[in-house]
Amino acid sequence: MSNMIRLLATADFREISEDLQEEIYYEYYDFAYGMILYIVKDHAATEDIIQESFIKVIKNKPVFENEGKLRAWLKVVTKNTTINYLRKNKNYRNQLDVEGVFMYKEEISKSPISVENTVETKLIEESIMDYLQQLKPEYSVLIEYRWKQGLSYKEISNMLDLSEDVVKQRLFRARESIKKMLFKEWGIKDEKRKI
Fold this sequence. Notes:
Layout: H1 3-10, H2 18-40, H3 43-60, H4 67-88, H5 115-134, H6 137-148, H7 153-160, H8 164-186
Helix pairs in contact: 1-2, 2-3, 2-4, 3-4, 5-8, 6-8, 7-8
């Protein structure tokens, strides 16, 4: 993580020079852009969410004892702001199920991403692919249809001759299993557990 983001956590943002404030904002922008764009798939909405989450970050930052906790907190704030945005905007309501594990895929962005983030994303993706192999077959096929092929609940339920409720329930269980595996290996928690 860059010194600019660290400065965001340690300094009073209002007392920093305007040029430095701008640098910190663009550093956060690069940090959050890929994760948000992956969810909303709209550049303008992504920029709105980045601005809103940045304001939350500078107004409500707690004290952190290490960089890992700062980074995790920034991800949670960004993720929660994105989810709130999706809930408020009816155009995006069908995308709410992606608030699970797969929000951590940051490399979709066209904006420059640090080598550290790119490597971490690749490793997490590889771990998720390994976790899929460990799931029950009925769970892994649902993840395959929903995540990789982008099918709706209705399309999946028609293909598998199951009710939509059963599909949603099994997808929830599959994502929860993967979240547990991610937490065990990477220390990544979801928003319900509040890091």
